[in-house]
Design brief:
This protein is mainly alpha-helical. The chain has eleven helices and eight strands.
Length: about 375
């Protein structure tokens, strides 16, 4: 295994170049005085179902609800909201459901989760806790299990275009435009890059020279370069989108990281040679009794490797969003120039760190994928044949 010690220098250069890309968004929280205990008790006795979905009234609860909503996927983009009137500005996304037939309508019917949407005689409501759509009655009642707390309503199959899906399409189109223009510039200028793709040419060369070749080898690295470049820039662009005020958290979604890790798992095992499988089921160089013990452990490692890829990317991005939004929310709790200034300064420094994390996680995911590919196609060593 060969691991380069140059990524720190690379990340530092990219960090300085991309600092202007980061925007700091203020959360939509109310700075009114905390409600009295009598108001809380009155809201709590309004009924089991209504109380379970009641809007938060105090500042801390609103901040917590906003942070939880920020890391969830959404069926619309809410750019800003008036707390007094409840009117929000943004744009809705299409809802596509399969529930005894196809149902297509705009998410504007939910009015940001406050109303029930009707489609072909069926009624659907948006659950505030998990952001999912459930079939309900005309009143929009969502019944929760008293023991588990999960909704008991029927949940239709959801093919909706959500914020995460939009960000995936945006990253794909951006990559297609950038690298197609880079390829065309090579053809026109005799192998010299020009245009916007010129900015990303050093990163492409870095992935090839510092990730693919050292971990896979000179002979077979070209077989995996297309995937490594795609996965690097795809994760990178999704991470960068998550730092914008749009509230996109694609790589902090376990489904997305699972899909990416599953692709690495498939490529690793379907392109592996005999030497790779021989090391797993009948490891050379160890006593035969130990081979029987090590075989199930090595077999389990086949699944642990992509699982670690999935959790590492998900946990780092998800935790970064939670911490950053929580620190920003402290400004509305302190309500003083000292506490708010400290919170703002800390959130600003953390935002810069999140830019570094965006590049670092893309690098780690790509590097580990290349490492797994390299182990799968590693040639048989002659000295092992004598054991």
């Amino acid at each position: 295994m060969v691991i380069s010690f140059k990524p720190l220098r690379f990340l530092l250069v990219v960090l300085v170049a991309c600092l202007p890309l980061r925007s700091l968004a203020n959360p939509e929280v109310d700075s009114v005085q905390v409600q009295t205990e009598v108001a809380h008790e009155a809201a709590a006795v309004e009924g089991h179902h209504e109380g379970a979905h009641a809007e938060p009234t105090d500042v801390k609860s609103k901040i917590k609800a906003f942070v939880n909503h920020h890391v969830l996927d959404s069926h619309d983009f809410s750019l800003t909201q008036d707390d007094e009137t409840g009117e929000a500005w943004g744009f809705s996304l299409p809802v596509i459901l399969w529930d005894n037939g196809l149902h297509i309508f705009s998410s504007a019917k939910f009015h940001h989760g406050k109303e029930v949407a009707e489609s072909n005689g069926n009624y659907y409501a948006l659950n505030h806790h998990d952001g999912k759509i459930y079939r309900t009655d005309a009143s929009g009642t969502i019944t929760e299990n008293e023991e588990t707390g999960f909704p008991e309503n029927v949940r239709p199959i959801d093919f909706s275009i959500t914020k995460t899906v939009v960000s995936i399409f945006a990253a794909a189109l951006l990559m297609l435009w950038l690298f197609s223009s880079l390829a065309k510039s090579y053809a026109k200028n005799g192998g010299i890059a020009s245009g916007p793709g010129r900015i990303f040419e050093p990163i492409v060369l870095y992935v090839r020279d510092e990730i693919a070749i050292p971990n896979i080898g000179e002979k077979k690295y070209k077989n995996y370069m297309s995937y490594l470049l795609t996965i690097f820039f795809f994760v990178l662009f999704l991470n960068i989108f998550g730092l914008t005020p749009l509230g996109i958290n694609a790589t902090g979604n376990l489904t997305i990281t699972f899909s990416l890790a599953f692709l690495t798992f498939l490529i690793t095992n379907f392109t592996a040679n005999k030497n790779y499988w021989g090391h797993i089921f009948w490891m050379p160089g160890v006593p035969k009794a130990m081979r029987i013990i090590l075989a199930p452990i090595e077999l389990l490692g086949i699944f642990i490797k992509p699982f670690s890829l999935m959790i590492r990317l998900y946990a780092n991005i998800f935790a970064g969003h939670i911490v950053l939004m929580s620190i920003i929310g402290l400004m509305f709790i302190f309500k003083s120039w000292i506490g708010s200034s400290l919170s703002f300064g800390l959130s600003f420094l953390l935002s810069i760190l999140e830019i570094l994390v965006a590049f670092l996680q893309a690098y780690i995911f790509t590097m580990l994928s290349a490492l797994y590919f390299g182990s799968a196609v590693e040639e048989h060593h002659h000295e092992e044949a004598h054991h």
